[in-house]
Amino acid sequence: MTTLDLITREDLEAFKKELFEKLEKLNINNESYKEKQWLRSSEVRKLLKISAGTLQNLRIKGVLKYEKLGGIFYYAHSDIEQLLGEIGRS
Question: Which residues form a coiled coil (predicted)?
Answer without folding.
Answer: 9-36
